[in-house]
């Protein structure tokens, strides 16, 4: 869906989760499910290819 793709794209570009939630008008934390499936973020975590510290970004989703 457009909202899921938008949330993922924003996350891949380092937009904070609270902003993603507001932009997508997500009433819950459901958008985090899509972000956690992002191949770009997963690859960055697995291979240490972080431009903006994907690891800390993923951990920020817990808050």
From TrEMBL:
<dbReference type="InterPro" id="IPR013762">
    <property type="entry name" value="Integrase-like_cat_sf"/>
</dbReference>
<dbReference type="GO" id="GO:0015074">
    <property type="term" value="P:DNA integration"/>
</dbReference>
<dbReference type="GO" id="GO:0003677">
    <property type="term" value="F:DNA binding"/>
</dbReference>
<dbReference type="GO" id="GO:0006310">
    <property type="term" value="P:DNA recombination"/>
</dbReference>
<protein>
    <submittedName>
        <fullName>Uncharacterized protein</fullName>
    </submittedName>
</protein>
